Amino acid sequence: MQRKRKDWLDHVERPSLHQKIWTFIVVSALSGAAFANDSKSAAVKGGSSSSGFDSVVKPLMTRSCVPCHNASVASGSVNLVPFNKETTLAEHREAWDRILLKIRSGEMPPPGSPRPPQDKVDAVVEYLTGEFEKADRNIKPDPGRVTARRMNRNEYSNTIRDILGIDFRANEDFPTDDSGEGFDNIADVLSISPLLMEKYVAAAEKIAARAVGSIALPKPVKAVYEPNANNLQRINVGTIEADHRVDFDGDYDILVGMPGERGKDAKPVQLGFFVDGKLVHQVQVETKPSDLVYFSPFSDVTFRVPLPEGEHKLRVEFLNDDFIQTLDENEYYKSKVNKYPSTISITGPFPSKLEKASRKKIFICDPGTGNACVEKIVANLARRAYRRPVTPDETASLMKLVALAKSNGEDVEQGIQLALQGMLVSPNFLFRIERNADPKNPEKIHRINDFELASRLSYFIWSSTPDEELLKLAETGKLHEDQVLTAQVKRMLADSRSVALADNFAGQWLEIRNLDSIKPDPDKFLSWGPELRNAMKTETKMFIMHMLRENRPMSEFLNARYTFLNDRLAGFYGIDGVTGSEFRKVDLASDQRGGILTHASVLTVSSYPTRTSPTIRGQYILNNILGTPPPPPPPDVPALDASKVGSEVSLRKQLEEHRNNPVCASCHARMDVLGFALESYNGIGKWRTVDGKFPIDSSGVLPGGKKFETANEMKAVLLDQLPDFSRCVTEKMMVYALGRGLQLYDRPTINSIQVKLKENNYQFQDLVFEIVRSLPFHSRRGELLSSTNGNSKEIAHR
Amino acid sequence: MITRKALNRRTFLRGTGAAVALPFLDSMVPAMANAATKTERPVRMAFLYVPNGIDMRNWNPDYEGKLTHLPRILKPLENFKEHFNLVSNLTHNAGRALLDGAGDHGRCCAAYLTGVQPKKTMVDIKAGISFDQIVANKIGSQTRFKSLELAMEDARQAGDCDSGYSCAYTNNLAWRSETQPLPPIMNPRILFERLFGEDATLSPEARKRRNQYRLSVLDLVSADAKKLTGELGPSDKRKLDEYLSSIRDIELQIEKAEKDNSQIDPGLDKPYGIPADFADHFRLMTDMMTVAFRADLTRVMTFLMTREGTSRAYREIGIPDGHHPLTHHRNQEDLMEKVAQINTYHVQQFAAWLEKLQSIQEGDSTLLDNSMIVYGAGLSDGNRHLHEDLPTLIAGKGGNRFKTGRRIVYRRETPMCNMFLTMMDRMGAPADDFGDSTGRLEGLDLT
């Protein structure tokens, strides 16, 4: 899965750029030595008709490829002379995949070179496709091996939430997880540094204390957020926000100050209080003049809410306030005309009257009744923390911590707290370790046990720990049974925790997470701001969840006639009739929008801070939709003649300039052209008809001759390649679900999933089911104790 | 031991009336700090890494020897030109493609302190132990923290980092082993809590008990890990080994703290949040780095200012374009100008830090004199991804051993690793060779 990140694009002068695969071709060609194939990869047989290669492939290669790709010319550093024997199909499969791709897509031979007759090309494509399918079927089934997986930050937070009911934000405290293959849950990449270990130790202490509720609250203090102090953000006339750090779980008094008054007959409004985007309190507020005497009209409202420790975004908003619509903008802040929220103060902590949810989860019996109960509590907690039954030995060593606390004169609750602290640092908690069924024969392929399966399911679908129901089914040994498994996956997808698939899987696959760090130029994009950014994120997230829960056909990723909007985003899109800040499903009347490629989120993360980049957007499509990442530019790309590029020429013209060079054209002819189709959307995804003084031209012709005039027609071209899209999503989701890179031996699995998806119109939820039922998900093998790490080979793309 | 703290901190903070209370007085130095009590001051080293190369036209002077007029990017260092050397023609061959194809950004960062060409992979990452960690392993037992890893830009959240190279290669500078990069801290609050503790309010007794509990917990979980290790294959075992060695590190930290139960007084208020402004963020980080050196909490720091390939924009100085796209300027003058401005802006911040280090007296010399602060990049020309003549500046006299104030031009293709060997000597962790070294870097010393 070789892809480049987008910043790598849009520059043409590049030395030493060279994709592995091309190096591979060149090196093997130059040395003349056949590279030893990965022993685990397919044992591809020569095939039945040795004449097929010689009669179909070889003549076309000799006539159309080799004249430019030989030892002395080696255009793009590719020498195809050695690829003249059928045996190379198996020996250099990855290279051949690449060659097939180039021929099939029409990228090669490039425009300007003589084209072979189409029927000859088709024959080559058909022959090669058939040979490769045959070869793939012969690959020995192998579920592969996943290294012990450390929880990443999201998984850690979710797990703590689900075991203990504690809101702990690992993202604020733990170092960022490294990612590989585009996802941050890849076992081999997730390591434990001393810094992270320090954080684990401190977090365990903190979480255990919060869960048991042994932290003494300090005296309440007050924090004030007001416009004068510069610590308050005004989102609009009816909405303000403040960032506030809560140091202790507890209840807090929120006071909202509201200057101004409305007319005598003014209706009250609903004031909503949101914590991190979630509405936690509503209260009705009078807006007509009060009888109280103020120098200037003012009122306030106070309410008490529980807040968990951590950094929070607090938001006060007048909900569905129709009165504002009747005002002129210059009347918003006139105290005799309007009332609006203006300050937030927070006073606390106060002890919560409610028993903490965490205590209910921990104290399943009264520890005062004696050791039997304490042991029960500890064993129960350890079972949840370790995601499996615990042995008497394990309970006994945790009980030693209880005893240690007691010997220090602390009470039994503090003892349990210390035992919990121990569990939260244990490798049994921090890692998901799968055991070999037969230690004498570690490489033996075996089904994982039901507890391991429960964890695989829950971390795949929820990014969290198995719940009681999954554990119980694992205990009865029924979880892996087909009907039970199906019912559980259904239940898990319906559960609110499955939103993790949108946040963590789709957030990385579609790069939506980058919206948090991307910083479009506010001078160029006036409407950009946190509000709009969050709306963009919500649209895509709700769309993904809809696709998933409603089991929509994957074609809707590209051409859905609906989306999810609130007033802010609808306004940005120029869509009428959407009022209020709540998101809802909206049917799309015009074809300006439809499908993820026209989501502002996607269009923003595939742009530069100051402008669009057709190259990046095209590459985004190749990477994330078609699954055919372009190779980086080869090393011999000449510099663009700077003098020809200037602000007097449109961006399109500038990019077309460098496609005059056939070496560039071979990739950019696809990439840029796909991107041009999206030029009707600016750098943050707003519809436009001109770019500066140049009218937008979103037409294009793809290699192979497919034409389009608009983004919509380009999407239709992509829809013709629905099987490619489905395969691309399948591969990404497999990587995410397994926590490892894909290997050659995964191809049969991917192929058979494609067959099944196709039967039912490529429905998205089906994909989750197919992955869960696949060999690599339910089975595994270990590695030989002597085998060395690091000789695995990445899967090559078609 | 705390009784030796001569000045009341509250008085001190009131006295300055500012959150940033540096430089602070000798008497504020915690009793535990060896630095304050010994006549022989320890040598410290730090690396500040700049991504995407530097505009070399405005970096290299057109002369050798004594530094006189400084090129544009180095101008902010005018007042310090007596205090650093500019070394030219150092190369990192391991950053080059060497048949591995594209990915110079990923490679140059991973190779920078390891001297090893990283394995081209998105998954099973492999480079080498970085030389700062060799030093840290050798001398780290003398300080509370073996080393500190810092950064100012968060790791990438989605997508890939460079042409088939895992993001781990561009997110990290220091490597503890060939498979284990050390993630840096970028949040000032987290750095503060790490250095000065989250528990300033704990009584000595409570702290002692906490440490006792922590050690017991660590005993228990090490036993868990050892039990597991026996049954696992090599890759799983490697993960557990990382786990165990990190546990061991923390045990040592606790033991050190037990022996010397004093709290470090940072002379700074605990910061919240990450400043959006580059200079503010840099100042917060370097303020704490200064205290960490000053109080001898550590002697080894690496600081990844921003990531290779970053598209951070510098609106602070009116540049809305991403840094990395700008460096691929294709020799367009307007883009090159912006790159030079960003490079200069970085050096301005660096100069402010040097000023702080220089203002702190340590006996007859200054903290800067007793340090080796390297400011450099893993690429020279970011447009063409060149790995030779890497821009490298080494400030401080390494404990009054270096003759500073010069530009030294080495033979072309002199390995960067040669400089590392020289630095390892000065840090008291000498080695015969490192990476592709061919010897020491001659000519830095006074004689």
Tell me what the structure shows.
The complex is a heterodimer of chains A (798) and B (447). Chain A is of the alpha+beta class and 798 residues long. Helix content of chain A is 41%, strand content 12%. Chain A contains 30 helices and 19 strands. Chain A has a five-stranded antiparallel beta sheet with strand order 3-4-9-6-7, with no helix packed on it. In chain A, strands 2-10-5-8 form a four-stranded antiparallel beta sheet, with no helix packed on it. In chain A, a hairpin with a 2-residue loop joins strand 6 and strand 7. By secondary structure, chain B is α/β, with parallel strands linked by helices. Chain B has helices spanning 9-16, 34-37, 104-114, 131-139, 168-171, 188-196, 204-229, 234-259, 278-294, 323-327, 333-359, 416-426, and strands at residues 44-50, 65-66, 84-91, 148-151, 175-177, 180-181, 300-304, 313-314, 319-322, 361-362, 365-366, 371-377, 392-395, 406-415. In chain B, strands 2-14-3-13-12-1-7-4 form an eight-stranded mixed beta sheet, sandwiched between helices. In chain B, strands 5-6 form a two-stranded antiparallel sheet. A two-stranded antiparallel ribbon of chain B has the order 8-9. In chain B, strand 10 (361-362) and strand 11 (365-366) form a beta hairpin. In chain B, helix 6 (188-196) packs parallel to helix 9 (278-294), helix 7 packs antiparallel against helix 8 (234-259) and helix 9 packs parallel to helix 11. The two termini of chain B are 42 Å apart. Chains A and B meet through helix 1, helix 8, helix 12, helix 13 and helix 14 of A and strand 6, helix 7, helix 8 and strand 9 of B.
Number of helices of chain A: 30
Span between termini of chain A: 11 Å
The H-and-E topology of chain B, N to C, reads as HHEEEHHEHEEHHHHEEEHHEEEEEH
Low-pLDDT residue intervals, each spanning 5 or more residues of chain A: 1-49, 638-646, 786-798
Average pLDDT rating of chain B: 86
Please state the CA-atom Rg of chain B, rounded to the nearest Å: 22 Å
Major β-sheet strand ordering of chain B: 2-14-3-13-12-1-7-4
Report the sheet with the most strands of chain B, covering strand number, pairing sense and barrel closure. 8 strands, mixed
Shape of chain A: flat
Oligomer status? heterodimer
Care to count the β-strands of chain B? 14
Helix content of chain A: 40-55%
**Overall SS class of chain A:** alpha+beta
Strand fraction of chain A equals 5-15%
Strand order of the largest sheet of chain A: 3-4-9-6-7
Give the strand tally of chain A.
Answer: 19
Largest protein interface, residues of each chain: A-B, 114 and 97 residues
Mean pLDDT of chain A: 86
